[in-house]
Design a protein that fits this description.
- The structure is a homodimer.
- With about 180 residues, chain A is mainly alpha-helical.
- Chain A has 2 domains: about 90 residues, Arc Repressor Mutant, subunit A; about 70 residues, Helix Hairpins, CATH 1.10.287.
- Helix content of chain A is about 70%, strand content about 5%.
- In chain A, strands 1-3-2 form a 3-stranded antiparallel β-sheet.
- In chain A, a hairpin with a 5-residue loop joins strand 2 and strand 3.
- In chain A, helix 1 crosses helix 4 and helix 6 runs antiparallel to helix 7.
- The longest helix of chain A has about 35 residues.
- Chains A and B meet through helix 5, helix 6 and helix 7 of A and helix 5, helix 6 and helix 7 of B.
- Chain A binds a DNA duplex (28 and 28 nucleotides) through helix 3.
Chain lengths: ~180, ~180
DNA sequence: TAAAGCATGTAAGAGGTTACATGATTGG
DNA sequence: CCAATCATGTAACCTCTTACATGCTTTA
């Protein structure tokens, strides 16, 4: 996941490690530590996906190479990054994805969340039925349901937006063709 | 985190690996894989925190030892498991924590979320001010704000509940003492 | 000039992921 | 009896965490 983050952030402009970390915190990915970030930068450099531009003082900015841009597109478009924080990370870079791919990705995520919601609802009902009297477990399960529902409606908004984008972008497929 | 989960689930009653995994999925911790669960069981057994009870067929149930119960209490009460999924995991076992410790833990978590909310709000304002026109990044930041707010109000409910528990449990500290 | 924050790095160890392999049990 | 599901396990690989070490830059 760090790889996607680094490549995606460098796609916009060169940055150095400390800056990357700050941006990740802004985006809500607070857990990234320097002990994983710096080794990740070296790995990516070794693979030729990014290259260092020595700067003032101790700073070491990196830029995305052409190869890195290809790899970024590949990861961003790949189907298997559906889970949890990974999806949010991909969402942060949706600007670099084609509208149809966006829509596909959003729908896939939505159906993933729907099945999670069903699981959470069943678990909550079972807990209530069991009547264990454990308020905190019940509260946790209730919260799982509520936050998953909220995530789904968030997805619905994004799906509506993505549809409107596609309608606005390629209207000539509706009116075009032979007169 | 897996250690806490396993010890906590076994504290109620013995279970085998497959069962533990199923319960974790119910509780919303879906990412646990058998490739981490079974080695974790062996580690815990080696440390004397759990012990195996051979059962029918291939099943191998484990029970919590006295040492395991101590270790569970230590982890559950420890201050440094404040982050993300770790907190929810602890919440699932709040029934085993003393009411005052619950309240302390909930408050700590709340202040953690409040500072996360501030960060998220600033990031959202900055993004709007920058006017990058990237709808998806803005949506992500907006969602970060909303879901953190929702988490805080969830916490507030739990804090109110924990307070009421303590008031109900020890009312004589209010009326007692010297007449 | 001292402190605080900026900035990069390494090493050890723990732990997770994925893929693979195996065998038991149950239902159609 | 076959398939699906239950159930446990191992190995290779990779990554993250934590702790430590270092040095620059700004500002009070």
């Amino acid at each position: 996941m760090l790889d996607l983050a680094v490549l995606g952030l460098l796609r916009k402009r060169p940055r150095h490690g400390y800056e990357l970390k700050a941006r990740l915190v802004e985006l809500g990915f607070a857990r990234v530590s320097f002990g994983s970030l710096y080794p990740a930068l070296r790995r990516l450099e070794k693979r030729g996906l990014i290259e260092a531009l020595r700067q003032s003082g101790r700073r070491k900015a990196y830029r995305l190479t052409d190869l890195g841009e290809q790899e970024f597109a590949r990861i961003l478009g790949s189907t298997d990054h559906d889970e949890d924080g990974r999806f949010n990370m991909r969402l942060a870079f949706f600007q670099y994805l084609e509208p149809p791919a966006r829509l596909r990705s959003l729908k896939r995520r939505r159906s993933h969340l729907v099945s999670r919601l069903q699981n959470a609802q069943v678990a909550l009902q079972d807990e209530i039925a069991a009547g264990s009297g454990d308020h905190y477990t019940a509260a946790l399960l209730q919260h799982n349901v509520a936050s998953t529902e909220s995530d789904i409606s968030f997805l619905d908004q994004l799906i509506a937006y993505a549809r409107s984008e596609m309608a606005a972008e390629a209207p000539r497929t509706l009116t075009g063709g032979k007169k």
